[in-house]
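To illustrate the input format used throughout this study, we show a single complete record. The first block contains the structure-token representation of the backbone; no residue identities are included at this stage. The design step must infer an amino acid for every position from geometry alone.
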């Protein structure tokens, strides 16, 4: 008898649920679902096929929309650079003494044993050019620094002459300006260099120069007064450019550096053309990789610039540089994203002998020694430079609207339909089940 009562309860529970589902079919706004409760068998089968076909079509289109969303299609916009002073800036310009000149400065200003002077140039060349250096050479350099009670950055700053003695003459566009206002000594990845930042050039830019097709900076440099030594090295770097290496300038030559740049800026802070990216100010992937190496080695690279409020490990000793230079990327666990702004440059460097410059009236050559000096003209060609802005055509909002349109077209699913389905599962069905369990089944007389 208990088994019979249990079976009756199950039947009543099923009938209550089926009644609630049938009532939902009859009143829902979903396309064709109310005909599934038709009293005619053929109508139910026909509309079931139609509903399944519509659901399949909606699923295929949703898969296509999702795949397109993952590919991040974007609209690439090209900006016109003419007349845009802020868009076309000069890059950071750095003038650095080569390792041979730095070694000569070490010997003149620091206490160094005579038996290591012949190897000092090779040691500094490896250290300043971020090459893998033998441990014995690192020990020699560390002993020199300890003997003079200096760290490597302090020693480089100590021997580096002021920038006005290295960068002799400067011309911005067509105006001669004091080099002391443009160049300052700073520690860089390539040692202590004389740096000129773009913001220093804006103050002297005239109205006429804004209409010119080029941005021009001409400098006369002399890194050493010894004709036997090499000249200077220089590099340029735009904000957003990942990695650059210095280029050599031989004494007694004129150089023309023709530059064009291409900038790609992603306007979506969460997406990049090939994946996610970082929008942090001053972020670069190469700097992120350096931080990961420093974290693994437990000390920071002494040849690096520090951002404001940036927390870094204590500087490495010279003998610890081998850990940074021989970092094993197989055990690399840090995730370094690309930057949302990518800048790439093309630089063509042309040179010519500096002949008979004493007879010219050009102020850039005033007071120069042709055997030890070089003249460099850096031009950024506006006509050959491009700034692209990536505007993603698929975002979460467009994806949701597209999916909503597909479901509404094929199944009639909208906001109110979603409320109906939620009301069915969370209100009607629980009430039907509870009512079926509250109904008392009368016992039989025999019982």
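Output of the design step:
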């Amino acid at each position: 008898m208990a088994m019979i009562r249990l079976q009756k309860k199950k039947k009543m529970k099923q009938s209550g649920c089926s009644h609630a589902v049938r009532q939902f079919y009859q009143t829902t706004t979903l396309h064709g679902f109310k005909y599934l409760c038709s009293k005619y068998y053929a109508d139910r089968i026909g509309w079931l096929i139609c509903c399944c076909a519509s659901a399949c079509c909606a699923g295929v289109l949703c898969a296509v929309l999702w795949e397109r969303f993952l590919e991040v299609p974007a609209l690439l916009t090209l900006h016109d650079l003419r007349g845009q002073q802020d868009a076309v800036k000069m890059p950071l310009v750095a003038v650095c003494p080569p390792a041979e000149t730095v070694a000569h400065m070490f010997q003149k200003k620091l206490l160094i044993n005579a038996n290591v002077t012949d190897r000092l140039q090779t040691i500094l060349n490896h250290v300043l050019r971020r090459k893998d250096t033998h441990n014995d050479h690192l020990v020699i350099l560390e002993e020199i620094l300890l003997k003079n009670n200096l760290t490597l950055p302090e020693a480089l700053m100590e021997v580096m002459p002021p920038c006005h003695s290295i960068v002799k003459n400067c011309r911005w566009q067509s105006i001669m300006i004091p080099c002391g206002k443009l160049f300052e000594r700073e520690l860089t990845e390539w040692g202590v260099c004389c740096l000129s930042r773009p913001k220093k050039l804006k103050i002297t830019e005239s109205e006429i120069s804004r209409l010119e097709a080029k941005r021009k900076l001409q400098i006369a440099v002399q890194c050493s007064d010894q004709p036997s030594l090499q000249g200077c090295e220089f590099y340029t770097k735009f904000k957003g450019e990942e990695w650059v290496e210095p280029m050599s300038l031989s004494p007694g030559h004129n150089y023309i550096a023709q530059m064009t740049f291409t900038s790609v800026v992603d306007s979506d802070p969460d997406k990049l053309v090939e994946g996610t990216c970082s929008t942090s100010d001053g972020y670069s992937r190469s700097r992120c990789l350096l931080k990961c190496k420093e974290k693994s080695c437990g000390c920071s690279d002494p040849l690096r610039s520090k951002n404001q409020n940036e927390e870094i490990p204590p500087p490495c000793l010279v003998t610890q540089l081998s850990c940074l230079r021989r970092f094993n990327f197989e055990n690399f666990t840090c995730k370094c994203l690309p930057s949302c702004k990518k800048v790439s440059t093309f630089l063509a460097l042309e040179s010519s002998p500096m002949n008979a410059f004493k007879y010219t009236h050009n102020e850039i050559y005033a007071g120069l020694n042709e055997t030890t000096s070089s003249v460099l003209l850096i031009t950024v060609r506006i006509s050959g430079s491009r700034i692209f802005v990536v505007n993603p055509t698929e975002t979460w909002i467009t994806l949701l609207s597209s999916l909503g349109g597909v479901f509404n077209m094929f199944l009639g699913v909208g906001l109110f339909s979603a409320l109906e389905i939620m009301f069915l599962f969370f209100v009607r069905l629980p009430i039907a089940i509870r009512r079926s369990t509250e109904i008392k089944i009368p016992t039989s007389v025999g019982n």
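Structural context for interpreting the output: Confidence is low (pLDDT under 50) at residues 269-274. The chain is about 35% helix and 20% strand.
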